[in-house]
Amino acid sequence: MTAAAQWPRRSGRAAANRPRPDLEALTGLRSGKPHYYPEYRTSAERLHRVILALEKISAALVRTMEGSEALVRAVVEAAADHLTAEWVVFALVDGALPEARPRHLVRGPDGAEWADARSVPPRIWLHLDHIRTDTSDDHHDEAEARRHLHVPIKLDGRTVGGFVAWTPEERPIDDTDHSVLRILAGQTAAALQNCALLDHSARLHARTSLQATDLRMRNEQLLATQAELGAARQREVLDNERHRIARELHDSVTQYALSAGMHIELVRTEIADPRLRGQLDTAKDLTRRAVEQLRSAIYALNDCDAHGADKDLPSMLRQLSGVHMPDELRVEVRIGGTPVELPSDCEQSLFRIAGEALFNTAVHAEATKAVVRLTYQGDQVRLTISDDGGGSPDGVRRSLRAATVATPSGEHRGLVNMQARARELGGTLTFRRARLGGLQVQVDIPVPCAAESSSP
């Protein structure tokens, strides 16, 4: 038997007599019960009001980044708009969330904030005081309870504040309002805690930045101090070496030179040949000059270099001009331009070049006058040593080339040292005829000179 045979079909009259479902009654648009449609409209209005309230609450709570003050104003405004409230009071319990500001906020019927909470009506002030002291006062008559709402703000199970609101006579408070305000209170507690954490994090970041800046400055000071200590240690080593060389010169070379002069004088008294006596006189004079130069070098090593770090270059040059120079050589020091501070290594190198040039003038040039001129020209410094002796610029240049190219024999090492010092400073060394008639040694170095970044 087929399925069609098992289930007999209903007649057309039975299908036509079956009652059709009333969709209008199910949707509430039309109902046989007089109260159904008004309840539907009331529920729809509540739902719409709740959605608007949640939107305002969300808009208020996203203002956490603006700080607790903007957050509190936003949540109070959201509560007032939802309830159409005449008064809304927000307050925090004394001692709870100590970093949150403001501690309380009162919004009046006209929507304005009451800055002085003591000027509000007594019943408003009483509720504000109950929240701040964490004491409850929920005893109200039935009429006031319909338009009066208390909602505590809790965090981690403890009450940290609360909302209190009063609505107009025509706006009673229902269960939906309680639910919305409880949601607002709970989210407000979390948002205030987040504000406190964010504020604490910002202060911690600022304090860390200050500490990092202080540590960086201290580190820079430590590095500078280490550099100064290293430079002082190097100066100490150099001073010790200079004193050692000065002792060696005084105890050995000077004594040998003095002994040679004494032997020359002894032989001179035993020889009657005028020509030989003249040559011995020359040898005696050279020995005397050698002793004077050795004494000058010993004095410079013991005194000038030891205190050179405390003097500027012009002062060192003036002191150099009067240090054991031969009586027949008159030295003048002239300073031109506006002096600028040069690195210590740079001044020491220029001082050495001037000393070597004056030494050559005194020993080899047979000069009677020498002029040391130091000129500051803004972007460079020029040092010249001029004399009226018999030195030849071409001869000096040939001697320098021979000492540089040929195998070192100890001769003309002073010229090589002068040229090396000038190059280390990033400058040049030239020789030309002086206006005095003799030789002029000229050194030009840039400012700042290269010795500023080189090791001592």
Q: How does this structure look, described?
A:
Among the domains are: 34-203, 2-Layer Sandwich (Beta-Lactamase), CATH 3.30.450; 311-456, Heat Shock Protein 90, CATH 3.30.565.10. Helices cover 56% and strands 14% of the residues. It has helices at 3-6, 12-17, 23-27, 36-61, 68-83, 122-132, 142-145, 175-270, 274-307, 313-321, 344-364, 393-405, 413-424, and strands at 87-92, 104-107, 148-155, 158-166, 330-336, 369-376, 380-387, 428-433, 439-446. The protein has a five-stranded mixed beta sheet. Helix 11 links the parallel strand 5 and strand 6 (369-376). Helix 8 packs antiparallel against helix 9 (274-307). Mean pLDDT is 78; it is low at 1-12, 21-34, 305-309 and 451-456.
